[in-house]
Specification:
single chain; five-stranded antiparallel β-sheet; Alpha-Beta Plaits; 530 residues; 21 helices; alpha+beta; four-stranded antiparallel β-sheet; 13 strands
Length: 530
């Protein structure tokens, strides 16, 4: 058997096979996922086998880039929205975890690599593990991660399940009282409104929307027997009937200003209908509706936009991603042209753009080698992990820069992420395995307690911040905490508490912040603790 295992290729696939099998085993609905590969790698490393370093670095680069491309489109946009509160909670969790790690390191006399590894495991952050290994260049990071990770998973799930019972909170009633209202998919409605306000007479749609400051979209205007699309320069007259699209509260406010609900509805001619279009053309990725000029060039109007299962009112500055679903009003003839515009490359472009991926990696690795001076701490580099992550976030935000195309099908991005992650974990595991027994024998109790402290303290303080300072509902609080701890099992437990999307949206807002700043904090901790 040892003859076969001496072949690196055979060794890699044996570790991946056993590790993935163990990772998918469930106990009480929980599993350790890809971390099974890390643990199996440690066993093989203890037995004297080693995955080549180049394989580990290749996996690290692919994994980190996929994470950056996933977070990039939402990262900057989220900072400008109500999701900023959840993002602050995510950042707070990482900050508290970093301070707690420093205290734990001195309290239990742990080395910098072990301490930082504990933090990444306590936060269940595989990107953090990658950044920590890069920052410390020490395999002991993986040992700390492997010890803290199981408790990090279980503790968050128990926290989510037990806290509402301990506090005796009615989750549904508490959510209804929340000041933050998350609008779920399908809540957009259409309302026929007749203009009765003299102040609206002879104003253009753009002038009306500027005055009212409402996100409601006027998709169509009916004047007698005429039926035409609502354009910015369309002049409105008293007695016109408008087909308005928006959320119920916005529609009511808009209707109260403009006029009244049309008694008989509106008679929509057959030539204008609603159509749902999926964005699939690479040429449109990263562009906004304003850039495309749909109304001017195609005489159609976008009324709704759907992404990742959530529906929003249209926004001219919305940057398109592949897979976005647009609800568009237009004639059958015009829609044929629009479908061609949005799906021009549907059959020819379904795979990863290797040119772009390799160029992002190359630029990221070169950026990662540039030294960054931090006053009082010394110099650091972003490394193989931080450099590609930074570049992927920037390019992922824009979607396309010159010849670089950064928005792939989500399934393709997941393949890059999963393959890169298991290759990296296999290499990290075998590297750490050679000294794991001695480390656990000498510092086992300190490592276990330290990991538990780094998990529990940020959770408790973040919950206090969310409830007392931001006055969030318990569901929003727990969802953002799960995002800050990058805990998908925790989110699953949140979703079982109440049948809404609130926890998932809070999680999605906090997650990218935590994802990125865990990697940054690992670099800083390596300077502080070394």
């Amino acid at each position: 058997m040892s003859v076969f295992l001496s072949d690196p290729l055979i060794l890699i696939f044996i570790i991946l096979f056993i590790g993935s099998f163990i990772g998918q085993l469930k106990f009480k609905g929980l599993n350790i996922g890809a971390s099974g590969v890390l643990l199996v790698g440690m066993v093989f490393g203890h037995l004297g086998y080693q995955v080549p370093t180049v394989v580990q670095n290749l996996g690290l680069s692919l994994f980190i880039v996929s994470v950056g491309l996933q977070a990039g489109p939402r990262f900057f946009r989220m900072l400008k929205s109500s999701g900023l509160i959840f993002a602050i909670i995510g950042l707070f969790i990482v900050g508290v975890a970093s301070i707690t790690t420093i205290i734990v390191a001195y309290l239990f006399d742990l080395s910098a690599p072990l301490s930082i590894g504990l933090m990444t495991g306590a936060l269940t952050s595989t990107p953090g593990l990658a950044a920590a290994i890069e920052a410390t260049n020490d395999p002991l990071v993986s040992v700390g991660y492997g010890i803290a990770y199981p408790f990090g998973v279980i503790a968050v799930v128990l926290f989510v399940q037990l806290l509402p019972r301990i506090l005796k909170v009615d989750v549904k009633a508490d959510l209804k009282r929340s000041e933050i209202i998350i609008k779920p998919k399908g809540s957009l409605q259409t309302m026929p409104i007749e203009i009765a306000n003299e102040l609206v007479h002879k104003k253009t749609i753009k002038e009306l929307q500027t005055e009212v400051k409402s996100p409601v979209v006027i998709s169509r205007v009916i004047r007698g027997n005429r039926n035409f699309l609502g354009r910015n320069d369309t002049v409105l007259l008293k007695g016109d009937q408008l087909v308005a699209v928006g959320y119920p509260s916005e529609l009511i406010q808009f209707k109260d200003y403009v006029g009244f609900l049309a008694k008989d509805g509106v008679n929509i001619r057959e030539n204008l209908k609603l159509h749902r279009i999926v964005v699939d053309s690479h040429d449109l990725i990263g562009k906004s509706l304003r850039d495309i000029h749909l109304r001017e060039n195609y005489d159609v109007t976008v009324t709704r936009m759907e992404r990742d299962g959530y529906e929003f009112s249209q926004s001219p500055t919305w940057r398109l991603e592949r897979g976005d679903v647009l609800t568009i009003v237009g004639s059958k003839e015009r829609m044929a042209e629009v479908r061609k515009l949005f799906g021009a490359k549907q059959l020819s472009e379904t795979n990863v753009h290797i040119f772009s991926l390799s160029l992002i990696l190359l630029i990221g690795i070169l950026i990662g080698k540039i030294p960054i001076y931090i006053p009082g701490l010394g110099s650091m580099t972003l490394g193989v992990a931080g450099g590609p992550l930074f570049i992927a976030i920037i390019i992922g935000h824009f979607g396309k820069i010159g010849p670089i195309k950064a928005r792939f099908f989500q399934p393709s991005n997941r393949v890059i992420r999963d393959v890169g992650m298991v290759l990296f974990l296999a290499g990290a595991g075998t590297t750490a395995g050679s000294g794991i027994v001695d480390v656990i024998a000498n510092q086992g109790i300190g490592l276990i307690l330290g990991g538990a402290i780094i998990t529990i303290v940020p959770m408790l303080l973040a919950f206090f911040l969310a409830r007392k300072l931001f006055r969030l509902s318990i569901i929003h609080s727990l969802g953002s905490i799960c995002g800050g701890l990058t805990s998908t099992p925790g989110l699953g437990a949140c979703n079982q508490l109440v049948d809404t999307e609130d926890a998932a949206i809070a999680y999605a807002a906090a997650y990218p912040i935590a994802l990125i700043f865990v990697a940054v904090s690992c670099q800083i901790l390596a300077l502080i603790l070394s």
